[in-house]
Structure formats: structure tokens, C-alpha cells
Specification:
The protein is α/β, with parallel strands linked by helices and about 325 residues long. It is built from ten helices and 15 strands. It has helices at about 40-50, 115-135, 150-160, 175-180, 195-205, 220-225, 250-255, 265-270, 270-285, 305-310; strands at about 5, 15-20, 30-40, 65-70, 85, 95-100, 105, 140-145, 165-170, 185-190, 210-215, 230-235, 260, 295-300, 320-324. The strands form three sheets. Strands 3, 4, 5, 6, 7, 14 and 15 form a seven-stranded mixed β-sheet that branches. β11, α6 and β12 (about 230-235) form a beta-alpha-beta unit. InterPro entries: ADH-like_C (IPR013149), ADH-like_N (IPR013154), ER (IPR020843), GroES-like_sf (IPR011032), NAD(P)-bd_dom_sf (IPR036291), QOR-like (IPR047618).
Length: about 325
């Protein structure tokens, strides 16, 4: 019988259990997928900890790559043996085998490995909508990417560099600074010893940035507002340090009639055509060599708790996958 990670209460990584599960056959519009690799993302921590409430018991995970084993009624564009990937609800990716809605799956092209696909779908499509749709980055723009050595950060830096933009990034160590620089970050700032607002002002000659991509949240948000020019945009798309505290909306006016958005991938890929478009754009950037997807850490799926500990302790860089 296949196994999966389950949790019956929210809390620390210790709530995650490795259990046998009964998967069954796919229903109408569904596909049974045997996973080969599963992606690890910070949203998994949010679900496990209770920051984002979920119905319990639950299996975490929103991203994986695998092989179609069986298709249900009405599924005519997939067949057994197809290699597929996804990064969307419903939760349940931390499993050897699962059922998945067919319209949330995309075929993985030759030239992209299973581990790459599992590690880049959520992070890569997030980067795609952030840099092409939330704020269409162009060569004349200067951007600030927080957590530039993280999974989304490394892809954002490369994608922006391919567009000709000037890329500033914050990182937590010299090692991460070198990693970010190797992936297109022109000006990595080690925030543990430098004030990133001061450095942004120096780098831009006081002009500040056109857009700030902030996945850190509480620890960076208010200072992110200091880093954008008049009419600039702050994109708050994560909260690895905790939720952004309530603030007076008039601050946006005082700091230059700023724009603020809190987008999610699930909205940007809600329509099937948008999902396919986003995935195709990402795959093409990878196949063209403009974006390198490096899987820097792997764990057996049954060791999900340890992977969560390492992610929360900021011991990981780039992408992490579970090998199934």
C-alpha cells in the first residue's frame, strides 16, 4: 500500500507522520499519479503550523512531478505513462501516489528532469506571474528581491536579468550572496551586517527601486516601503518571518503614493489557459538556458519533518525536493 505524510493537528514538524494510505481509482476528470519527486515550499510550513488553516487530518504539499498511472472518465488529453507536474490545490503532494484533477496537470517536456520539475513549478510559476504580470519588468527597471538566494528568489533574479533589469537582492550570509550573484543578482546585500535601505539608496543614487518583491513579511515589510520610488509597487507575496502587522494605510501616501499588492499563484493560474501559459513560459526559459534550476537539497519523503526544520532554520538554499 502506498504511503503519505499526514498530520492530525497543527504545530511543529513533529506532527508529521508517515502512514499507509488507500488511494483508490480516479473519478470523473481525475488522474492517478505516482510521484517521483515532490517539492518543498514555505506554504507547506504555513499549512502544517496552522498559519493557513486547513481541514484536518491533512497531507501537505502543493507541488510534485510524477507519472500517470490511470485516468478517469472524461480525461482525454492524458494517458498512462505521461510525465506530468503540478503546483496547485488540492493539497496532498507529500504522497507516493495520489488522485489529482486532470486540469491542474501539465505535461513535462523532454530536457526537464523530474526533480527539476518538482522543484520549479510553484516557485517558477510564482516568478513568472510576479515578473511578467504583477509588475511587467523591463530593462529600464531596478528591482529589489528579498530572500534572493531562496527558491523563488534565484529564479526571479535570473528571469529579471534575462530581461535586462538591474537586480538588487537581500541575503543572510556571504555564501548566499555569492549564490545570488551567480544567478543574476547585481547587488547582493547581506542584511545581517548592512542596512538594506541605506544600501538601496546608495546603489540607486537615491532614486530607489521600481518594485520590491517581498516574501519575508514581518521583518522586512516596513523597510521595503522605504525602498520604492514614488508610485512604486511593493509586492508582498510571502511571510517567512511572520505576518505583516496591521499598519495605517496612509503610510503608502506619505511615502510617495505607493502601490501595494498581496498576490497568490492560485489566482494567477485559476484558469486552465493561464496555468498552461505560465508553465510553458517557465519551461521555455529553462530549456533556453536563461534559468537554471538547481536542486540544492534532497530528502526522502518520509523525512519531511527534518526538511521542515531545515527550511524554517534557513539552512536551505534554492530548491529542495523529496525523493519518493
Amino acid at each position: 500500500m502506498p504511503h503519505a505524510i499526514r498530520f492530525y493537528e497543527t504545530g511543529s514538524p513533529e506532527v508529521l507522520r508517515w502512514e499507509a494510505v488507500d488511494v483508490g481509482h480516479p473519478g470523473k476528470g481525475e488522474v492517478r499519479v505516482r510521484h517521483t519527486a515532490v517539492g518543498l515550499n514555505f506554504i507547506d510550513v504555513y499549512h502544517r503550523s496552522g498559519l493557513y488553516p486547513v481541514q484536518l487530518p491533512a497531507t501537505p504539499g502543493l507541488e510534485a512531478c510524477g507519472v500517470v498511472e490511470e485516468v478517469g472518465e472524461g480525461v482525454d488529453d492524458l494517458k498512462p505513462g505521461d510525465r506530468v507536474a503540478y503546483a496547485s490545490p488540492p493539497m496532498g503532494a507529500y504522497a507516493q501516489v495520489r488522485l489529482m484533477p486532470a486540469d491542474r496537470l501539465v505535461k513535462v517536456p523532454e530536457g526537464v528532469s523530474d526533480e527539476q520539475a518538482a522543484s520549479m513549478m510553484l516557485k517558477g510559476m510564482t516568478a513568472e506571474y510576479l515578473i511578467r504580470r504583477t509588475f511587467p519588468v523591463k530593462a529600464e527597471h531596478t528591482i529589489l528581491v528579498h530572500a534572493a538566494a531562496g527558491g523563488v528568489g534565484l529564479i526571479l533574479c535570473q528571469w529579471a536579468k534575462a530581461l535586462g533589469a538591474t537586480v538588487i537582492g537581500t541575503v543572510g550570509s556571504d555564501e548566499k550572496a555569492r549564490l545570488a550573484e551567480a544567478h543574476g543578482c547585481d547587488y547582493p546585500i547581506v542584511y545581517t551586517r548592512e542596512d538594506f535601505v541605506t544600501r538601496v539608496m546608495e546603489i540607486t543614487g537615491g532614486r530607489k527601486c521600481d518594485v520590491v518583491y517581498d516574501s519575508v513579511g514581518r521583518d522586512t515589510f516596513m523597510k521595503s516601503l522605504e525602498c520604492v520610488r514614488m508610485f512604486g509597487l511593493v509586492v508582498s507575496f510571502g511571510q517567512s518571518s511572520g505576518p505583516v502587522p496591521p499598519f495605517e494605510v496612509g503610510v503608502l501616501s506619505a511615502k510617495g503614493s505607493l502601490y501595494l499588492t498581496r498576490p497568490t499563484l492560485m489566482h494567477y493560474t485559476a484558469k486552465r489557459e493561464d496555468l498552461v501559459m505560465s508553465a510553458d513560459a517557465l519551461f521555455q526559459m529553462v530549456l533556453d538556458g536563461k534559468i537554471r534550476i538547481n536542486v540544492n537539497q534532497t530528502y526522502p519523503l518520509r523525512e519531511a519533518a527534518q526538511a521542515h526544520r531545515d527550511l524554517e532554520a534557513r539552512k536551505t538554499t534554492g530548491s529542495t525536493v523529496f525523493v519518493v
